[in-house]
Amino acid sequence: MDAQEPSDFHEGLAQAEEAAINPHKEWDRGRAEPPEVRDDGFGGRMLNLYRRDHTEAVLRNSAVFSTRVVAESMGPFMGPLMLGMDGDEHTAYRGLVSRAFRSSALARWETELVAPIVNELLDGIAPRGRADLVAELTQRFPTRVIAGIMGVPLDDADQFRLWSEQVSAGPLYPEVGHEASQAMRDYLRPIVEDRKVNPRDDLISDIIHAEIDGQRLDDEHIYGFLLLLMPAGAETTSRELGIALTVLLTHDGWLDRLQTDWSLLDQVIEETLRWESSAPLATREATEDTEVDGCPIPAGTRLMMTMTSANRDERVYPDGDRWNPDREQPVPHMAFGWGRHLCLGMHLARLEMRVALPAILDRLPGLRLDPDAEPPLIRGVAFRGPEELHVVWDV
Questions:
Q1: Which single residue of 68, 81, 259, 274 could bond 311 by disulfide (Cβ 3.0 to 4.6 Å)?
Q2: Is the distance from CB of 216 to CB of 209 less than 8 angstroms?
Q3: 25-314+331-392 maps to which CATH number?
């Protein structure tokens, strides 16, 4: 055996760990260099884009830069999904779900689901004075909200979240992804069949009974919607709430400022979304020969955009790597994407954070990091957030 192999192996692990904790180093370098199409190592071409103007140009031009690459990677696990649709097809299917996230619906969800769920979860931990907020709150809260909107029993939300995470990991772990996809379908089938005959005031019923060009969705499209909604609507928000709590707990003075002046809450939320998106990556595929900023892009090239890098672009956000809710005249960020695939659930995500943060700080007085635990780390590349957030408070 090569005597250097163990050292090389551990060095590789250390580099991978560093990249997961701080991909910003690579993203910062990418913004400083001109775009260049490269061999992806699998016989294809790849272009990584990090700057705000480059990212926005691609996401605005859905006619040339297609989302079909998303359908190719996730379709085997989710079935037909809206994220992989383009043009009129995408517009039609997006309209089916958009009604659940309109302003009047959000007002109802706030009083019927969002506030009661976060307070119920806080009821379970508030008397203890110590908790891992990721495991006991931020992972569970948005999952239950989405389950309630869909019409899935809230008691099953944690299991549903686990399946959703496994489905999302399908491209990396196909066997696990397929098993979880089938388990979700088996679980949802009796609910879907019941709603076909006995519709209720929930999203599953809306999807089943909605029509596109006079036709209702077939089962494959129904399940495609439902398998997408949980990871898209819960995982990203749970991670972003964890990021918000982490940054507040690690930036001296901000918890006190916020509790003294809640008018700062929206600034804190928007700056957190800009500074660290829980789902920073977006992929597209060029449908024809084109270019971005003078860089030739052959048809078939896959493009990877990093929204968090675009959100820290110094050309748009001076001192962009610094979390600073006091920024003057902030430019709209790209945490929820851009163009026609702008995240449909962005208003719900903001609502959940606006409700949860005051409730947490009110119910857990003197909230602070647990001195006996390791400090929290925001980590990940495709999905970012703290894996643990150990805290204590006064009881």
A1: 274
A2: yes
A3: 1.10.630.10
Give the model confidence (pLDDT) of 95-108 as tens digits: 767 766 777 778 88
End-to-end CA distance of the chain: 58
Long-range contacts of 188-195 (CB under 8 A, 24+ apart): 188/152, 188/223, 188/226, 191/151, 191/152, 192/219, 192/222, 192/223, 192/226, 195/151
Tell me the pLDDT tens digit for each residue of 27-83. Answer: 999 999 999 999 988 889 999 999 999 999 999 998 899 988 877 887 788 877 666
Q: Is 215 exposed, middle or buried (0-12, 13-18, 19+ CB in 10 A)?
A: exposed
DSSP label at 210? Answer: -
Distance in angstroms (rounded) separating the CA atoms of residues 80 and 70: 10
Q: Which two tokens stand for residue 317?
A: 């956000």
CA distances from residue 33 to 26, 72, 100, 279, 310 in whole angstroms, order as listed:
11, 30, 42, 23, 14
Global pTM value: 0.89
At 72, which amino acid appears? E
Paired with 306 in beta bridges are: 281
- Are 243 and 385 in contact by the 8 Å Cβ rule? The answer is yes
